[in-house]
Predict the structure.
Amino acid sequence: MTAFTNPELEVSPKTAWTPNMVEERLVDAAQVLACLPQSRVRAVYSQWPCLVPSSDDLSGQTPCPNAPAAPPPAAIDRMEQAFGWFNWLEADDIKITWARATRVRWKPICWRLGIARATAHRRYRYALSVIAWRLSGRQVPTKRVRQFVIERTHGAQR
């Protein structure tokens, strides 16, 4: 799937969100963020005039690669909406979830957090399940183990 192609996943209590849908939206948010232009602070500037190169100066040079197209405003809105979902997670779960959305491999994630790969995967699945529960309009049970939440949300998508 290419970036910005799934606008039909709108957040509403009528939609039964699954962890796969949440993961797709987070990956899309990471792609949108990567396409946004870098912000630059102009703290230092030059008094020299900007020199425009002539065609003689440019002869024999290769053209600059084209910058990626700017994402549409709807994609940026969905990205910002997805960033709000991280408020429902714990700090380490946010790190794992965002790293996986940006396609970081499991080994660097585990090294960074000092946990086993199975633990990282379990926490990632729980984070996606929590977001799916909240988006579906349900309250996450606090007196249940994490596996209960994972099984209920993954059971709903089968």
